[in-house]
Design a protein that fits this description.
Blueprint: H1 25-44, H2 50-81, H3 99-109, H4 112-135, H5 148-169, H6 179-182, H7 185-201, H8 215-226, H9 230-240, H10 242-267
Helix pairs in contact: 1-5, 2-3, 2-5, 3-4, 4-5, 4-10, 8-9
Length: 268
C-alpha cells in the first residue's frame, strides 16, 4: 500500500485499499518483543517496594484516562465531521478491556474490597485478555500498523498484560482460589451498563450481545436470538469470562507450587 495514502492520525474510513496488518512483520516483531521484555522486566523489578508500585499505579491510571479520552474525542471528531454522528454503539468505554481503566483507578485510589477486586481483575481476566489482545489485535484489522489507531490498540493491550504481570510477579497482588470469582465480580458491574447499551443500540459491548469475533459464540447468539432468547446468550457469555480468571489462578498456583517445591528441595 502507498504510505502516502494516509497519515498517522487518519481515520479508518479514510484509508483506501487497506485489508489488515494483523500478523504483519511489524506486528509479529511487536508480539515477540512484548513476550520477551514484559516477563523479563517484571522479574528484574520483582523486589520493587510496594509504595512505589502504588505511586506507579496512580500515575499510570491518570495516563490511561487521558489516553482513552483522547481516543474517544479523536474518533468522535471523525464520526461527527463525516456525518456519521456520535457512535453510541461502538465508542462508549463499555468493553471488557475498558474495565482495565476503571479497575486501575480503583486499584490506585480505592480501598477495601473495591481495591482488592480491582487488583484481582487486573491480575487475572485483564492480564490474560491483554495477552490475547496483543496477539489477536483487532485494531490492526482497521488501521495500518504505523497509525494512531493501531498504536493505541497495541499499547492498551500491552499495558493490560504488563501491569497484570507486574503486580503478580512483585507480589503486590497474591492470588487465591477464591479470586477465580473475585476477579470476575467487576465484570458484573460493567455489565449493568453494557447490557442496556447493547440492547438499546444493537452494540456488542463486552461481546455479550453477539459474541463478535468468536465463531462458536456468534453462532450460539444467532440461534438463541432467532427464538427471542438472546438474553440467555448474554448470561452464558458473561459467565464464560470466569474461565479466564480460572486459567490464570491455576497457572499462578502451579508456578507457586513449583517454586515452593524447589525451595524445599534446596533447604534440605
Amino acid at each position: 500500500m502507498n504510505l502516502l495514502s494516509y497519515y498517522f492520525f487518519d481515520y479508518k474510513y479514510n484509508i483506501d485499499n487497506f485489508t489488515s496488518d494483523l500478523f504483519s512483520i511489524p506486528h509479529i516483531i511487536f508480539i515477540i518483543l512484548s513476550l520477551i521484555l514484559v516477563p523479563t522486566i517484571c522479574i528484574l523489578l520483582r523486589k520493587t517496594d510496594h509504595n512505589k508500585i502504588l505511586i506507579f499505579l496512580k500515575i499510570f491510571s491518570i495516563v490511561m484516562v487521558v489516553l482513552e479520552l483522547t481516543k474517544i474525542f479523536w474518533e468522535s471528531y471523525w464520526d461527527i465531521s463525516t456525518g456519521r454522528g456520535f457512535n453510541y454503539g461502538g465508542i462508549l468505554p463499555l468493553y471488557t478491556c475498558s474495565l482495565f481503566i476503571y479497575c486501575l483507578l480503583f486499584s490506585a485510589w480505592g480501598k477495601g474490597k473495591p481495591k482488592d477486586f480491582s487488583l484481582t481483575y487486573i491480575g487475572t481476566i485483564s492480564m490474560l485478555s491483554g495477552l490475547i489482545g496483543l496477539i489477536q489485535c483487532n485494531g490492526l484489522n482497521w488501521y495500518p500498523f504505523w497509525t494512531f489507531g493501531a498504536f493505541y490498540s497495541m499499547f492498551f493491550h500491552l499495558s493490560m498484560f504488563a501491569v497484570g504481570t507486574f503486580i503478580l510477579v512483585t507480589g503486590y497482588k497474591k492470588l487465591e482460589w477464591k479470586d477465580i470469582i473475585f476477579g470476575w465480580i467487576p465484570m458484573l458491574f460493567l455489565a449493568l451498563a453494557a447490557l442496556p447499551a447493547n440492547y438499546e443500540y444493537g452494540a456488542d459491548y463486552m461481546q455479550i450481545y453477539e459474541g463478535s469475533g468468536i465463531p462458536l459464540f456468534s453462532t450460539l447468539s444467532d440461534k438463541l436470538a432467532s427464538v427471542n432468547l438472546r438474553w440467555i446468550f448474554s448470561l452464558i457469555m458473561l459467565a464464560a469470562y470466569m474461565i479466564l480468571s480460572g486459567v490464570v489462578v491455576c497457572i499462578y498456583k502451579l508456578i507457586q507450587y513449583l517454586i515452593n517445591k524447589k525451595q524445599f528441595k534446596y533447604s534440605k
